[in-house]
Amino acid sequence: MIFALLIAAGALFWAWRRGRLQTGDGLALLVGAIALELALKGRVALAGGLAAALGGWWLLMRRRPVRRAGKATPRMPAETARTLLGVTDDADDAAIRAAHRRLIARVHPDSGGSPALAAQVNAARDTLLAELNRDRRQAS
Question: Do 89 and 80 touch, CB atoms closer than 8 A?
């Protein structure tokens, strides 16, 4: 059992340092480590049942959208978003996405830009698309 706990603790620490933890990952790692420990002790049937349950649970959890703390898109006023992207008040989805694509190509960190600028451009796109969708829902 100590072996299982050490494996789970090491995997949790590794995932935490890389920022890849999601809800329930700690429990999943612990159950997986216990299943491994049981398999090593010769209790293969019980270990197989735990592993199958863990696999089903993991597949179910991975279908949910990932929401990480601190990674939320910052809000900005729609007028600021329009100015940043260079679109008019009556811009549609295609115009907003085209303006975003042109601008993000210049400010993306892979192109020599900064992560902060890329985040602002993405926030502008998200703000305008959300406003457009909200207007469509209200019109219908």
Answer: no
| Residue 75: per-residue pLDDT | 74
Rounded CA separation 102/73 (Å): 20
| pLDDT tens profile 33-84 | 777 778 888 888 888 888 788 777 766 766 555 555 444 555 789 999 999 9
Tokens (6 digits) for 55 = 């696999």
- What domains appear along the chain, each with residue ranges and CATH number? 2-62 (no CATH), 78-139 (1.10.287.110)
CB-facing half-sphere around the CA of 94: CA atoms within 13 A: 0
CA 123 – CA 125 distance, rounded (Å):
5
Contacts of 127 (CB under 8 A, 6+ apart): 75, 76, 77, 78, 81
Query: In Å, how far are 58, 113, 136 from 28, measured between CA atoms?
Result: 8, 38, 41
With a threshold of 0.70, does the pTM exceed it? no
